[in-house]
Amino acid sequence: MFPLLAKKYLTLWFRHYKIKMGHLTLEQRYKIETYHSLGKRIIEIADYIGKDKSVVSREIKRNSDGRNGIYKASLAHRKAQKRHQIKPKKLTFTPEVISNVKQYLAQYFSPEQMVGGFAYIEKNNEWVLESLTDKDHIRGAFKAYRKACFAEIGGLRPAMGWDTVDELLCRFYNWQIVTLEDLKVKHLKPTGAIYDQSARYKQGEAFYRLGYGFWITAIAGLKLALRKQKPLLFIDYLKGFFKAKNNKTPLLVTKEQAQFIRNYRWKKMKEKMFG
User: Fold this and answer.
1) Looking at the record's lineage, which domain of life comes first (predicted)?
2) Long-range CB pairs of 187-191, under 8 A, 24+ apart, other chains included
3) Of the candidates 72, 116, 131, 254, which lies 20 to 30 Å from 171 by C-alpha distance?
4) What global pTM score does this model have?
């Protein structure tokens, strides 16, 4: 009896929650415009249109005219629709998606694996590869780990450089890393678009915490700065490296792992130089 009542109560609560907290319609926005122009309080407007006061408050703050602060329903509706269009959509496992997953598993299946695709950014109305890293590196959130691999590397590090140290540790523990060139991910915000001075220093700190040492940091920093077409970033990277070193900031890896990482980086550089 109790489980049935609980289920019924939760169902009714969820329906009520969706109504009170769900998306606003154009009609509701016109009502907000009218009541707001009459000087009605947020809590009154919310009561009139059957929404929670937080929904109304957020709507007015986010979708008012940025030039004069006036709320107009038509403008608010356009802004909300545009925001909804660029918002990442929930992945639905359609038959087509399932078929592609099976195909990739058959093609790249391995008990030792981390897999991911490539980041693309929009330039001149075209989606082009954001080539900040080598093609054997998987960018940030595009990665998929095998459970055993994820456990052995100790999960993710809550620090800048987390999406590099995980791959280096995968190589340390002899896990395979696979990049899929036909898996293209649209990156709506180019890397570093909103980085400030402190974030630039953190890149140098990340190089230090990865156990790179000075010379690898210098080479990697110069390469990254040139790829971003901002040579002066190189100085910020070095400042961040020495600041972390002077503060004796703890590494993200053990001494043994740091030695492996340095050897691996030097090996990759020699391969690029001498083939």
Assistant:
1) Bacteria
2) 187/119, 187/120, 187/121, 187/130, 187/139, 188/86, 188/122, 190/121, 190/130, 191/119, 191/130, 191/132
3) 131
4) 0.54
